[in-house]
Amino acid sequence: MTNREPILSLRGVNTHYGVVHILKDVDIDIYPGEMVCLLGGNASGKTTTLKTILGYVKPTHGTVTLNGEEVNEWTTAERVGRGVTMVPENRRLFKRMSVKENLEIGAYLRPGEDLSDDYDRIFELFPRVKERLSQKAGTLSGGEQQMVAMGRALMAQPKVLLMDEPSMGLAPVLVAQNFDIIEKINKAGTTVFVVEQNANMALSIADRGYVLQTGKIVLSDTAEGLLNNPQMRQAYLGEV
Question: What does the alpha-carbon distance between residue 159 and residue 36 come to, in Å, rounded to a whole number?
Fold first, then answer.
């Protein structure tokens, strides 16, 4: 893996909200085709990491690179246009708009393009979304909303798909289905970076993982290595 260039990289990234120091010298590399997870408890800095990648938050020190090109000064739209998009925590759908309109928003940087293949891909992954196209997004169940949020992100044709807490608010059976679909998306060629509190579930499908604690990377290893790490098992996997 070391002979390849990362598709996404954070180097010495520090971020602040006012005087509050959130991320502290964070180094992350994600290689093409990988599934990588970022684990940690509440207020560890996981979501801030994603916001920094997308440009919602600007590093006070350090660099974010995409395909080897520094993107610190790029807008969020420019980053999305170059292949990075996110499924946000709690889905964040436009609830008064139809499912189809929500999907169309995912392709807003592709005006005039034929989207039929994209819809076919989404309907294959999420048959229920096809049945709900004319329905208002706010009337869907939590699981259905998650499907639409993932479909909306895929409409941008991402090279790197960021996922913020995909298991949040879902019943256990839906969490398992959700992660099965994430794994399918990854195996179809999309690089995936998952931020997740459910460490066991995330590591069951990931290639590698990082553990964030109070803004610092405290562990990084293969998924198998993290699952077998005593510190990890005690602190994050609920074992004593």
Answer: 14
- The confidence score (pLDDT) of residue 1 equals 44
Distance CA 200, CA 205 (A): 9
Q: Which two tokens stand for residue 210?
A: 């990082």
d(CA 224, CA 39): 14
In this structure, which topology does domain 1-83+158-240 adopt according to CATH? Rossmann fold (3.40.50)
Nearest to 137 by CA among 177, 183, 105, 89: 105
User: What's this model's pTM, rounded to 2 decimal places?
Assistant: 0.90
Predicted local distance difference test score (pLDDT) of residue 108: 84
| Spatial distance between the Cα atoms of 13 and 25, rounded to a whole number of angstroms | 5
Domains of the chain, residue spans: 1-83+158-240, 91-157
Three-class SS string for the chain? CCCCCCCEEEEEEEEEECCEEEEEEEEEEECCCCEEEEECCCCCCHHHHHHHHHCCCCCCEEEEEECCEECCCCCHHHHHHCCEEEECCCCCCCCCCEHHHHHHHHCCCCCCCCCHHHHHHHHHHCHHHHHCCCCEHHHCCHHHHHHHHHHHHHCCCCCEEEEECCCCCCCHHHHHHHHHHHHHHHHCCCEEEEEECCHHHHHHHCCEEEEEECCEEEEEEEHHHHHCCHHHHHHCCCCC
Each residue's pLDDT tens digit, 141-196: 888 888 899 999 999 999 999 999 888 877 788 888 889 989 999 999 999 999 98
